[in-house]
Design goal:
four-stranded antiparallel beta sheet; 197 residues; mainly beta
Length: 197
């Protein structure tokens, strides 16, 4: 029982003589003021109104509005992914890079329209265009045609040179980054040496 509000360091010693092991935890116990008027963490905000009464936090930022300040909230955006494992801890729309767009890309040769379906967990797309020759190995020479776009279709009137074809690859994007361009027929992830900005 801690009769005085404050942050307390505690220790534990365990062992069988003559051997022993010590564990010390600094500021491990937080005893708040009973009336809420004290300021245990010394940040100038009374315990009763402090969003993180045991962690000094003058900003009192609460991204997800759960009355637990970011300084002591293990999931600042309340997306179910702990901040330590969340690549965008302040953005509830993303906690990991998006998955592949998959086999949703369609090209209509008559209208020169390219369309795709973006997967859940993404809000933007990158579209790449490359050329391939008849009977030659897949060159992976694509460049960015449309970057960081909210669209899921685009018109591309470009025509290939004689004996060449045009291919398109699309990736999904979110606050955590860009997903992959899918895999080759052999199962290897397609390289992306010139990603869209």
């Amino acid at each position: 029982v801690f009769g005085t509000p404050g942050l307390y360091t505690v220790g534990l010693t365990a062992g069988i003589p003559p051997a022993s092991d010590d564990e010390i935890k600094a500021d491990y116990i937080c005893a708040l003021s009973a009336d809420g008027l004290g300021d245990v963490d010394g940040d100038g905000i009374a315990d009763g109104t402090d969003l993180c009464p045991c962690v000094a936090d003058m900003a009192q930022t609460d991204t997800d509005g759960d009355s637990l300040g970011n300084a002591c909230d293990p999931d600042d955006d309340n997306d179910g992914a702990p901040d330590g494992a969340d690549c965008a801890p302040l953005d509830a729309s993303a906690s990991a890079p998006p998955v592949d767009v998959g086999a949703t890309l369609q090209v209509n040769a008559v209208s020169t329209n390219v369309a795709w379906i973006r997967p859940a967990g993404s809000n933007l797309s990158n579209l790449y265009r490359g050329t391939i020759g008849n009977g030659l190995p897949f060159p992976n020479d694509h460049t960015c045609l449309l970057g960081a776009s909210a669209a899921q279709s685009v018109s591309d009137p470009t025509l290939p040179h004689t004996g060449k074809g045009i291919y398109y690859l699309v990736s999904a994007r979110n606050a955590c980054g860009e997903g992959t361009l899918g895999s080759s027929s052999a199962g290897a992830e397609r390289p992306n040496s010139l990603p869209c900005p």
